[in-house]
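User: Sequence in, structure out. Go.
Assistant: Echoing your sequence, followed by the structure tokens.
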Amino acid sequence: MKKNKLLCCDWGTSNFRLYLLDIVTTKVLRIVQSDQGIATTFDAWKKNGQNNRVDFYRTFLHAQIQRLATKIGANLEYVPIILSGMASSSIGMIEVPYTEVPFDIDEPNLSIKQFSATTTFPNELFIYGGLKTDQDVMRGEEVQLLGLSHLIHTESSICLLPGTHSKHIRIENKKVVDFQTFMTGECFDLFSKQSILKDSVNAGAIFSETQQGFFKKGLLKAQQTNLLNSLFSVRTNTLLKDVTAENNYHYLSGLLIGQELKALQDFKGQLLLNCSNHLAVIYEFALKTLQLDHQLTVVTKRDMAQCIPIAHTKLYQNI
């Protein structure tokens, strides 16, 4: 028998979020957050020397459930809990196999590992795995997509999830048929902090009109040249053209994002852009500059906040 309350846990590499959800309304009743992501928890488990990893992770989870119960003034024992994200990875609570595409977002069939309630952890627990193609994998982004499926209004669409490892998820007739990962954010971090280019760039606090101009130059150069060659132009901008480090920072960003967005050049369907406000401004500007915004839907802050609760409700109702 299904419950009318659900605990939803979005446990990423560096962050932890636990929601109490009303299943009938999909309203979030309360949330607790922590910076103890999966990576930190895994390191703590290794240092602890405890053999049973599942029990170690459940101890942390139980403490967070109690923290949430105290905030809301209610007993949350026996409320089922769903985990997604990196909880099912090789450094998570337990590794759950990937599901191979195609993946139906209206009838999700993700791999699942179920743990019955115990005396020390009285919440039934469901952990969901990610998706794979023959060349790529993801954990967590597919759950975000489940919660955004109501925004897809064309037969062919791509969901863009910019970040450290950007994802482009291809959807045909409400089925995920392919996806690609782009190490855009990680490369930007490496080039701007650890390469010879680090002395040529400096983060600017704003995305001013001038900085937009340099970002645009990077975008357009990426369309015309080889990235390994164009990257060095960040240095020559400083040496030969007196470009400031702040403007060069946005030029480098344009080069890398422009290289990523090359993958969308021939796509004519709907683009669904889901990311934080800062990245949304930058990617929306990039898509417009490259004339890729003909069917662009930018996910609102409200829809972004609701996507995990909606997705977890779908998954629970499909058990």
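User: And one key feature?
Assistant: The mean pLDDT is 93.
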